[in-house]
Amino acid sequence: MALEGLHHITAITADAPRNVDFYARLLGLRLVKKTVNFDQPDVYHLYYGDESGTPGSILTFFEFPDAAPGTAGDGMVHAIVWRVAGPDALGFWAQRLTDDGTAVTWDEGGLLRFADPEGLTHEIVASDAGDAPLTARALDIPPAHALLGFHGVRAYARVPERSAPLLTALGFAQRAPGGAWIAQGETRHGVIHYDAPPAPHGIQGAGTVHHIAWSAADDAELTSLRSTAIGAGARPTPIIDRQYFHSVYFREPSGVLFELASRDIGFAVDEAAAELGTHLKLPPQYEGQRAQLEAALTPITNPRGGTAG
Ligand code: ZN
Predict the structure, then answer these.
(1) Is the Cβ–Cβ distance between 46 and 244 less than 8 Å?
(2) Domain residue spans of the chain
(3) Which of 252, 210, 190, 191 has the alpha carbon at shortest distance from 72?
(4) pTM here?
(5) What is the Å distance from ligand 1's center to 8 Cα?
(6) 262 C-alpha vs ligand 1 centroid, how far in Å?
(7) Bridge partners (DSSP) listed for residue 35
């Protein structure tokens, strides 16, 4: 039993239409589910990913239209790291982003860095990892250059050593002191790397990551990992039904909100695979409020065609 890398990453946007344009058009991800925040159903929860929303490729956003811009600080994820196949793909993304007016910078080691329109930082690395490629089929992005899913995240932590016992208990390993912590599963791996925080404290808001979810098999594994987390000092929630997966949440000692999410349900549970992201899907408890919710939500267009309003 091991976590199979990341399951999903959830961030905050104040502008759903612009968010869809950036992630589904420019980055070429597929909008695989348009639903609402189950804890606050008058705002969107948008899911992007590969063609079927495979765990390891799922980037989600809560839309809070009035959210002020946030800043990542101590205890927060500050960058999302994607994999591509090689240097040619990095070059493709540098050109595509620049042509679209998104500034890019190259880091040592050939890592490409950019930010979304609300300041959320992304990095792309060329990876020779054996993990299966999790690609979406955007018509204007050659498949060889497409994003392949998450490599991991970078978070700020003042004393990252505090997180070591919990991470170790959950099965993460570090290849070198001070290096990234790796969740190595049988088929996928994902990493979290801690960096020294900038001086100011962070502010949760638009353009910041809300939580990261690691990939667990099913309820049995969630139950077992939940006990492990308690034994390592965490205070997890009960298992919560999120319609497309089941989840357990807890804050790790450096402050990052962790979720463990199951892989055994998926997005086709309430929408045909060919139509993912086309309809506003509501969990049963909110179906009775559909008319009011549809009236309150910002209309958004899925670039894959049709007005998904
Ligand atoms: Zn989540």
Answers:
(1) no
(2) 6-308
(3) 210
(4) 0.96
(5) 6
(6) 11
(7) 45
